[in-house]
């Protein structure tokens, strides 16, 4: 029997992180902080780090959470703007990666096409393409950590519009914003009502002849200060790390309070938001037509507008809102079901994302394909029946990174537990395969509802519950024991050897 030469084996690391955006860079930091002896690499399919913040180039792109909570706990946010633009966020991410040497572990243009787990070898073998050269290679790892986000980077969602081919102007999706697009003095219609639309409208309003936001259904829109005076004061009198920690704690508490208030008192929350909107708009403005959603607050994510910029654009006459359904595109613009016609030179389809779980990476376990819809999330970071696999999914009711940071800390605790007890394999297992489940994300957004059948599920209680409570998650992920009755630890089963 011939022996396999070492040169024929794929390169091996302890942890392979897929995605070099916000989540991937954070995962790398916690891993090298808590396990400096473990080897790791980050694979990034695109040609630059930063994920979302490098990909999107549309006007005004910014965070929809404050950076004291959206940023990392370990890296103070010192920019004056709490609601920051993409350039500032991207600079922050890349500074973090450089400061901690994470950028040296990133391999750009490495697209993962699949990953296969072998229980006999206790490792993943990952099929990778070098997109800059076309070369195919394999890497192996003990743990595979997916930080690839939750939507398709190469394709945004655009519904089928009747007559779109007749339109003589230009149609653009924000996810694929052309560098050469000139909208100065152009009539612009932005189709959509989510965070992208409410960002685009005021950002384009200054240069365009007029911008119309065309929505089918209103969204809750809340003005917030772009800069927080308290943060400026604290940075003047305290070390940056202390000021950041205090602002982070304050904003975590505020986010939690607002979400719980909306859940407990939805009708009061609705009235408060309406009152706030009416104060920002001209007297007699039809608030109930354009700012009165048919659902309760936080059934979908609230849209925030820094310094009330959307309301200012509407009040100045540079922008307007229309709530109606599209009947058809025409040569000159859009005809609505009400009969109204909107003329446009440019139409922006801010119509959402295409959700793609695990970055679209197909998984197999001992030769059997993993069907995500048949799996249940364990503590929001692993999948039932899938060994040595972790994923980063953040909050939908607060800053995404708050949850990701807790998951990364728990992941490192899990590795330490395995090392201490001599385990090689860790697999979440359902004790009751007939356990009732529900969609992974209890969220009424269209992009989520379109993708439910392709996503894993969640249970009704911990550890199978996809918790959205930061305090409860802090206890479970950072303080409670790592071991769990639903978590099976083992070692490889070699031919001719009993399981350990």
Automatic annotation (TrEMBL):
<comment type="similarity">
    <text>Belongs to the FAD-binding monooxygenase family.</text>
</comment>
<keyword id="KW-0521">NADP</keyword>
<dbReference type="InterPro" id="IPR036188">
    <property type="entry name" value="FAD/NAD-bd_sf"/>
</dbReference>
<keyword id="KW-0503">Monooxygenase</keyword>
<dbReference type="Pfam" id="PF07992">
    <property type="entry name" value="Pyr_redox_2"/>
</dbReference>
<keyword id="KW-0285">Flavoprotein</keyword>
<dbReference type="GO" id="GO:0004497">
    <property type="term" value="F:monooxygenase activity"/>
</dbReference>
<dbReference type="InterPro" id="IPR051820">
    <property type="entry name" value="FAD-binding_MO"/>
</dbReference>
<dbReference type="InterPro" id="IPR023753">
    <property type="entry name" value="FAD/NAD-binding_dom"/>
</dbReference>
<keyword id="KW-0274">FAD</keyword>
<feature type="domain" description="FAD/NAD(P)-binding">
    <location>
        <begin position="14"/>
        <end position="236"/>
    </location>
</feature>
<keyword id="KW-0560">Oxidoreductase</keyword>
<protein>
    <submittedName>
        <fullName>NAD(P)/FAD-dependent oxidoreductase</fullName>
    </submittedName>
</protein>
């Amino acid at each position: 029997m011939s022996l396999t030469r070492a040169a024929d084996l794929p390169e091996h690391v302890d942890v392979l992180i897929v995605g070099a955006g916000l989540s991937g860079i954070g995962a790398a930091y916690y891993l090298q902080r808590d396990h400096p002896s473990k080897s790791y690499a980050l694979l990034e399919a695109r040609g630059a780090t930063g994920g979302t913040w490098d990909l999107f180039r549309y006007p005004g792109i910014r965070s929809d959470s404050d950076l004291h909570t959206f940023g990392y706990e370990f890296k103070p946010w010192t920019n004056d703007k709490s609601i920051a633009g993409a350039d500032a966020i991207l600079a922050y991410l890349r500074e973090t990666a450089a400061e901690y040497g994470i950028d040296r572990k990133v391999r750009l243009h490495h697209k993962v096409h699949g990953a296969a787990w072998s229980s006999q070898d206790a490792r993943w073998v990952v099929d990778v393409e070098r997109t800059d050269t076309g070369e195919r290679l394999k890497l192996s790892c003990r743990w595979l950590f997916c930080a690839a986000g939750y939507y398709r980077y190469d394709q945004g969602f655009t519904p089928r519009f009747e007559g779109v081919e007749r339109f003589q102007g230009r149609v653009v999706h924000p996810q694929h914003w052309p560098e050469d697009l000139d909208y100065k003095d152009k009539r612009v219609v932005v189709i959509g009502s989510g965070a992208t639309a409410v960002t685009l409208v005021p950002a384009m309003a200054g240069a365009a002849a007029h911008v119309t936001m065309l929505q089918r259904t209103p969204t809750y829109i809340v003005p917030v200060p772009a800069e927080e005076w308290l943060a400026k004061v604290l940075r003047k009198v305290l070390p940056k790390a202390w000021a950041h920690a205090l602002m982070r704690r304050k904003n975590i508490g505020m986010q939690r309070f607002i979400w719980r208030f909306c859940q407990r008192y939805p009708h009061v929350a609705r009235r408060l938001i309406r009152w706030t909107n009416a104060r920002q708009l001209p007297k007699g403005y039809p608030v109930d037509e354009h700012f009165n959603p048919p659902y309760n607050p936080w059934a979908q994510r609230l849209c925030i507008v820094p310094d009330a910029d959307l309301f200012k654009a509407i009040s100045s006459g540079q922008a307007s809102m229309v709530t109606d359904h599209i009947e058809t595109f025409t040569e000159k613009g859009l005809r609505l079901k009400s009969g109204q016609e909107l003329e446009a030179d440019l139409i922006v389809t801010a119509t959402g994302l295409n959700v793609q779980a695990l970055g679209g990476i197909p998984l197999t376990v001992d030769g059997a394909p993993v069907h995500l819809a048949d799996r249940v999330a364990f503590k929001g970071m692993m999948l039932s029946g899938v060994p040595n696999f972790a994923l980063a999914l953040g909050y939908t009711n607060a800053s995404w990174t708050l949850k990701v940071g807790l998951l990364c800390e728990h992941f490192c605790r899990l590795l330490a537990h395995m090392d201490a007890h001599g385990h090689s394999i860790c697999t979440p297992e359902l004790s009751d395969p007939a356990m009732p489940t529900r969609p992974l994300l209890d969220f009424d957004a269209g992009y989520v509802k379109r993708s439910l059948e392709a996503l894993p599920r969640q249970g009704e209680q911990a550890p199978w519950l996809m918790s959205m409570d930061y305090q409860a998650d802090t206890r479970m992920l950072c303080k409670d024991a790592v071991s769990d009755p639903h978590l099976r630890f083992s070692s490889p089963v070699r031919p001719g050897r009993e399981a350990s």
